């Protein structure tokens, strides 16, 4: 009999082993990033990876799994962020132990297993255990009382809010039952009827058993599920509290070493000052969340998961400041997280350097603006407090937004600070400012969000970032750091192989900001790669894509990287041309013409912008004139690195993905164009040569697109136009100047000819119909005609049916034609007969004979078929059908 588990790692193992012994498959923790549920940012419970199984959309080869699942509760329905550090039991990242039954065992077993584990394995004193059940769940109540033997006084019936679980508004749901531990009466609790629903800290919920037994429909009706299921979740941190007899999860062995590191770094000891204690705990909690998120490839960004990470990380950084830390420190706390958790999660150890580097980098960025932001916020708080008579004491949304936008303060960080002063943020004002910003950003950048980072790339990116030197040079010597073939790392690539190459530095520009990736060559002593594209799949990583065109290439080889200068120069012309086009658009159309996106390639440029109406020819010409006048001025490019706020102050058009806290690259030409841009540019506008607009179209409501060419490309285009014009002139034997009149005349002649042709066709139809009339049969008093009309097209068939219907006055008509291996059929029924025969139905049946489909109205219908050989049979079919119905 193994001794009773005490350490968290022993508890985790004991739990999994316990359920393994009871027929459960031990399944490794799924990723924190759910792959099966796009509505969820993070896995927030043990059942999430099995959601589709519970819904019956997926099956597994086992019906009883058990897991220790990584969870995050920082967004959406379960958001415990604000509790962290303040309650003894809430974390952002935590581990959920669980056992599940997919339509296998149900309540009796689930309750019995839980009780056996808690009292038998963990050896918790039964007298300390209390349970809750759903008000109406007599089954569960009875099981706890009779099977387990718990006195009724320790079984509580709670209502829906606490003890009824649902996957969503509809779908699987059911009552649940929680197990609580009683730490004994709390001196500060004033509730005379203190029970598990009381929040004083006496009772701790540590395990929730969900009995999935109903399916709820849109009207809220519950139907019993044919195979009820079990989903249980026990927070490892909370189980450890109970086992280790501590009332704060931070006092368990899961957190102690991490808190110790935070105390060492800050010089603040726990138990000194209540607010500092909160900060220490927040830092410890957040360090865990941050380590796991970065370890899974999430990087700080301004949206989605990356933004959640950034918020947590910055919140921790600010608590560091409260602890008196002025230098980056969180990465060092993360180091202790990796020590503490690496045994159970070896991926953390594998990625230690990557995780701590990334965290440090983000900390450094934030620290640059943090103190300025804090002093601004301090002033604003004083101002708000001094404003007497102001209801509710609210920080203007604009201020919160400025902190967010310029100083990188996520809103909940600002709120966290305000809470300490009894203030709150004007949420509406913040949202409005944010919306305006979004509009601007939307106009500026498309799709530069978090890319699902492939593991391989993430692994490579863990080393040093690739140094981009392509602003200064087009060729340099570098070392090949990694070679990928088919997405997997390889040691060498042979002639003909498609490869991805990563070097320590590169002159190749990786696609971003609309500018496509550079092309060129990578040469080593043993071979040569033709590079056809350059990408940046992960921040800091540049990947050259291409094919080995000579010899072979080895990893670690010294290489010469050479960008195709001609293509680069063409791209440069188009990129600078795009900036001038953007500036000209704003001058001609007004400042509401905002960039929505752009594509800059060597051969062309494309620019999308907000504008409601199509541009007139005159506006387009004015834009072209303006741009070309700026080109003629040959204004030199001025490239500067400035703090973001300063750049905006100087009127730069803000279209940068990473904004606040950043030093941004600002490109100006003369006094007419200033933009934030990381792309490559002409040294002076003259290099652009000329800019010619090719087209202007609408691509979405309120969004227009201009395509244009510059330099040689524009010249080539104009030449092609000229050549086409000359060819037309030759064909028409007229000088180019007279072409419009000549074409006008030709079109007129053509219209006259078409008219004449139609008249002749009608005549021919008349004659043909006349001939066909001789084939009319009478079946049961109904005139029926089914015949071929050679060479007619579907439109003509219709005209013929009309004509025949008119001539017959009463009857059923079908004409059919074949051509190019296909059959066309048209059936008409005169109005007096539509009550008896329906053209649509007839045509469907007849079409089947020739392997076709069709349909239509009661009086007229058409069909096509693929089997002309059966046409005769189809014609007979119509007669048979009429006969059957007549
Ligand atoms: P609470 O009411 O304490 O927030 P909950 O009802 O939200 O808990 P469940 O959704 O039932 O919890 O999750 C199942 C188990 O997961 C809980 O019994 C608890 O042990 C654990 N758990 C839930 N949220 C957290 C958290 N934020 N940090 C640590 N453990 C948690
Ligand atoms: Mg909760």
Write the layout of secondary structure elements.
Elements: H1 8-21, E1 25-26, H2 51-54, E2 65-72, E3 74-75, E4 78-79, E5 93-101, H3 107-121, E6 129-134, H4 138-148, E7 155-158, H5 160-163, E8 164-166, E9 171-182, E10 203-216, E11 222-235, H6 236-244, H7 256-266, H8 274-295, H9 304-322, H10 330-341, H11 346-350, H12 352-386, E12 394-395, H13 397-407, H14 411-419, E13 424-425, H15 427-444, H16 455-461, E14 467-468, E15 475-485, E16 488-490, E17 492-493, E18 498-503, E19 505-506, E20 520-524, E21 527-535, E22 543-551, E23 553-554, E24 558-563, H17 565-589, E25 595-600, E26 605-610, H18 617-633, E27 637-643, H19 644-649, E28 663-669, E29 673-676, E30 691-700, E31 703-710, H20 711-732, H21 739-773, E32 777-779, E33 782-788, H22 794-808, E34 812-819, E35 822-829, H23 839-849, E36 852-856, E37 860-865, H24 871-885
Parallel strand pairs: 1-2, 6-7, 12-13, 14-19, 33-34
Antiparallel strand pairs: 2-5, 3-4, 5-11, 6-9, 8-9, 9-10, 10-11, 15-16, 15-18, 15-24, 17-23, 18-22, 20-21, 20-24, 21-22, 25-26, 26-31, 27-28, 28-29, 30-31, 32-33, 34-35, 35-37, 36-37
Helix pairs in contact: 3-4, 7-8, 7-10, 8-9, 8-10, 8-12, 9-12, 10-12, 12-13, 13-15, 17-18, 21-22, 23-24
The structure holds adenosine-5'-triphosphate (ATP) and magnesium ion.
Adenosine-5'-triphosphate binds at residues 73, 80, 89-91, 94, 96, 205-208, 233-235, 237-238.
